[in-house]
């Protein structure tokens, strides 16, 4: 059963948001100042228009030329305020977009950095979809809020505040008619937030499940077809899709209720101001200009109030996504790195047990001493624990019990692999699996994933070792050629050589191979295996063998049955013993 990655609570999300604001406080202050000035310019226009109404209404006894001159001056002020509002809004929007792009880039880089350093055991337990959803759909959910919402929300908040303050200053008696209907919407907002936040979190988690089902089915399409699992996978996808759709309908209903309340909240104030103003004007309590000004303020409120519907909804969706993104940072490491020593000695296992789920061990008290420079094949039936043992020897998972160490250490028992820093661990031992990836960047950047300080000469040397120098020399820009999506497409064999060249750059003392070429077609596999042989030269090798011809060529063979090493020795010796290895060999040879 998958255990999803943690989800941060509201306190952690607010703390992360405040950290981002503090990191960019200068830019945030500049954007806020510009938007505040733009809002002041906007609310100044109704005030001047109200003065114009009062001027005209009281102009009966005044000289026509004097009134016309003052009107012209007020018109010039309105034009100046409109121009100022446009310029300030444009400048504020530009700075806000730049700020949003920077913040989003930092969020994305921090999320990818956190995901890259997640304990693999946690990723496997959570499942493919959860992490894909957080790095894909969740990150995309907050893109619009970060890139556009910063400026828009500031405009809305500052506009609402300045309009309310300006209305109170203009007419303390008339302004309640505009403010009270707005306050009536607050309980609806509170109700909406209480229901929307958990709904959006649930929906994001469901979308992650949908993404996971699709990704897993697509990645294992051959297995799905071979075992006629298509209908079953479709039923799983249909169930997950129905759950998403049901949640989408619920959140849509929440939005409809909120939209209706806000629509009334933006329409009623205009009517209330006019009606209340007419009653007050009949008693001489307010002027016609004051009624005009506050009515125009009520009309100005309609735009930010209607926009706030969209942004409140977007904020809830982004907040739910942010809680899942910040949750990735809350995953606790499964080890404490205390040593950067590189011994160059092969790992050894002592009393190692491991359980993916508490109480269900898949390895049981395994002892294994590797001989420097040897090739050890690990064989056994499917599900016997071969790959798990390989991951223990590569330091991918810390053992549930026992130790996997290298060297002698201060206590003479060696240094635990899980106590090594990431760089030191990669110099000691590297796991090579069936999967490899070519990233959408230059070939040089793809290689420098293994060693960021590698020179071009070292990159070329690594490519020569794996036999890739011929086709690399034919690339249009050499090492700087863009490869992967949107660039030069590499064949499976070439992609495998890139992955092996990374290992050459890392230069580990020990390699753990989990059928590194088994997914390639035979013609490509032969070429890749030649490249692999060049990488293996001079290193200790542990090969998780699903094909027993690999075991026949090894120095020693370890037979794993039900999570235990039941036989260990050279191929010929084990065949002669007529034990478990003999039965495996005969079953494989008779196919």
Topology:
Layout: H1 10-23, H2 25-57, H3 64-116, H4 120-126, H5 128-170, H6 176-183, H7 186-219, H8 221-226, H9 230-282, H10 288-329, E1 348-357, E2 360-369, E3 375-379, H11 386-393, E4 401-406, E5 415-416, H12 422-428, E6 429-432, E7 441-442, H13 443-448, H14 456-465, H15 469-473, E8 482-483, H16 492-506, E9 510-514, H17 522-536, E10 540-544, H18 548-552, E11 556-561, E12 564-569, H19 571-576, H20 580-589
Parallel strand pairs: 3-10, 3-11, 6-9, 9-10
Antiparallel strand pairs: 1-2, 1-4, 4-5, 7-8, 11-12
Could you list some keywords that capture this structure?
591 residues; alpha/beta; 6-stranded mixed sheet; 12 strands; 64% helix; elongated
